[in-house]
Amino acid sequence: MRKFFNTDGYCDPELHYMVNLSSRLNEIKSMVDAGKYFTVNRARQYGKTTILTALSDFLRDDYEVISLDFQTISYADFNSEQNFVAAFSGELLACTAQLPEEIREKLLIYCNSQPRETTLSVLFRTLSELCKISQRKIVLIIDEIDTATNNQVFIDFLAQLRAYYLKRRRTPVFQSVILAGVYDVRNVKRKIRSEDEHKENSPWNIAADFLVNMSFSTDDIAGMLSEYEADCHTKMDILKMAALLYDYTSGYPYLVSRLCMFMDERISGNAWTKEGLLTSVKMLLEENNSLFQSLMNKLTDFPELNQVILRLLFQGQSIAYNPDDVAVLNARMFGFVKVKNSVVLLANRIFEMRLYNKFLLDFKEQNNDIYTKSSCQKNQFIVNGHLNVRLVLEKFIETFDYLYGDQNEAFLEDTGRKYFMLFLRPIINGTGNCYVEAQTRNRERMDLVIDYCGEQSIIEMKIWHGNAYNERGEKQLSDYLDYFHLKKGYMLSFNFNRKKEIGIKEIMLGDRLLIEAVV
């Protein structure tokens, strides 16, 4: 049986098509060799368990590896120090086959003592004894550490790790400790008492920075596709497909594998083409997978995230990265955004499109008129399978002017582009998608890219700031069309001038046709 693309649980190189992890494993091993204690914090389904599983095998030639998963420790086990020690000891016994007999006997006592009176300090003395008598140095890996972060027992556990780390020259201790999860236990505040009192998880301030890049590069993806192509002989353009996958995912591991899985298993014909990729993107955006569920739940649990994302999506605001901005820190931790050149950006195009769909649905509930008008007219915009973008702009101008023509400048600047995307949605819904190019996202200008049946259309949405500014915009759009190899582009200008001329006009710039709509 040949390999397949996996998005359920960790990836096994014997069973699944996956990127080569060797360079990452060598980077992490260098940290282990140096005796570092650190955390692997990444968003959900970012490959943490896959890299830890591979790391456990990779380290076994040089170290004894104890690999635990805190998902197997129940909520009740964190209610008291004694319960936690019993549960931790049980997991250690279950996951470690070669324990010295004297250590095994002690752990069995901790598991079965009634009443449970063993404390963390007793457990750590036993762990130190294990490190002392072990023939090789021991590495402790704990996955899904998030399970534990909401209680005092876990903070005390971190404090013990810290205390032993600081006296490691005198007391036997683990060579390295690696904690993995979404939450960074170094700085996330957690409620640990019934009253409104919070405490920082400062006992883990010994952690070294983990700078290993776990996202997939274009070369990583190309390597995975090369292995697949050697088995399946699809005649795909590997480098082009790898670049397209990266463009849409920014290397988010789950998203890359999910799109590949769709093209491999669910799309017939020319699956490994640009058209096949766009079809797989549509399928991905329409499913309610566990990753998207997690993202949407975070928007409910952390309402401040909504404002950060709305500013990026619709207002085009540039957000400078500030490590003291809790909302941005959380948005980054949960995977909504990334930081590039000290500027906060949406994490990838897939998330952006999914978030557009979510927030436009919310916006529709309060502004249903324009959506309804568009829905009633949508059949006229598709001719022989092609989207008539010019007609979309004409009808948007007519509808918008009728519904909102008497609104003020602030209204247009804050929500005008949102209204156009809401008008567009029922027209392309089910067949096409749209996204905003990150490099042109600002308060004055946003370039909207529409993918419809394999065809792309570019609409520059901008705020009117006079003729000179408009002419510069026309030149910018013409240059941008070169990038997409298109001969026709569109502009949608929101003009606050009372003497403006509403309507459509055509402009030729060299051999490029620009169709401009003014609202």
Task: Give an overview of the whole structure.
It is a single chain. The chain has four domains: 22-204, P-loop containing nucleotide triphosphate hydrolases (Rossmann fold, 3-Layer(aba) Sandwich), CATH 3.40.50.300; 218-286; 290-346, no CATH class; 359-518, no CATH class. The protein is 47% helix and 16% strand. The protein contains 18 helices and 17 strands. The chain has helices at residues 22-33, 48-59, 81-95, 101-112, 120-133, 152-166, 218-232, 238-249, 253-265, 274-286, 290-301, 304-313, 326-333, 349-366, 368-377, 389-404, 409-428, 467-484, and strands at residues 37-41, 64-69, 138-143, 176-181, 190-191, 198-199, 319-320, 337-340, 343-346, 382-383, 386-387, 432-436, 445-452, 455-463, 488-494, 503-509, 512-518. α6 (152-166) links the parallel β3 (138-143) and β4 (176-181). The model is unreliable at 188-199 (pLDDT under 50).
Keywords:
519 residues; alpha/beta; Rossmann fold; elongated
Which SSEs are present, and which pair or pack?
Elements: H1 22-33, E1 37-41, H2 48-59, E2 64-69, H3 81-95, H4 101-112, H5 120-133, E3 138-143, H6 152-166, E4 176-181, E5 190-191, E6 198-199, H7 218-232, H8 238-249, H9 253-265, H10 274-286, H11 290-301, H12 304-313, E7 319-320, H13 326-333, E8 337-340, E9 343-346, H14 349-366, H15 368-377, E10 382-383, E11 386-387, H16 389-404, H17 409-428, E12 432-436, E13 445-452, E14 455-463, H18 467-484, E15 488-494, E16 503-509, E17 512-518
Parallel strand pairs: 1-4, 2-3, 3-4, 14-15, 15-17
Antiparallel strand pairs: 5-6, 7-9, 8-9, 10-11, 12-13, 13-14, 16-17
Helix pairs in contact: 1-2, 3-4, 4-5, 5-6, 7-8, 9-10, 12-13, 14-15, 14-17, 15-16, 15-17
